[in-house]
Amino acid sequence: MALAAGIEGTVERVDEHHRQQSHEVREYLRLKSLLDDFGHQMPPESRRQLEEQVGDLEEQWAAYQRRTLRVTVRVRLDNGFVLDEAPEEAFVSA
Asked: How far apart are CA 41 and CA 11, in angstroms?
């Protein structure tokens, strides 16, 4: 479908399609939070082990962050057309 530039409409809904978190990503978040919150209170050896575990999961965390969040919109155009689940990057906000 091709629409002329300048056609206006109203965004009725914005949907964010969240990325699925793997077990490794959830574990990274849990361990990183533990390290950030309590690492300074831990015995040195326990802290070192926790830092190693976090380091081992950083690659999976980085890959997860690189995946883009998909956002779609439902737009009711002034000419009566309704576009649903259209990619947000197809529209310019006024």
From this structure: 50
pLDDT at residue 77 greater than cutoff 70: yes
What lies within 8 Å, CB to CB, of 53 at 6+ separation is 31
* CA pair distance 93, 57, nearest whole angstrom: 38
53 three-state secondary structure: helix
Three-class DSSP category at 7: coil
Q: For residue 90, what pLDDT is reported?
A: 80
Joined together, the tokens standing for residue 83 give 């576009």
How confident is the model at residue 47, as a pLDDT? Answer: 96
Which residues, including other chains, have CB under 8 Å from residue 31's CB and lie 6 or more apart?
50, 53, 54, 57
Kind of pairing between the strands at 70-77 and 9-17? antiparallel
Q: Which two tokens stand for residue 41?
A: 């209170």
- What is the rounded average pLDDT for all residues in the chain? 89
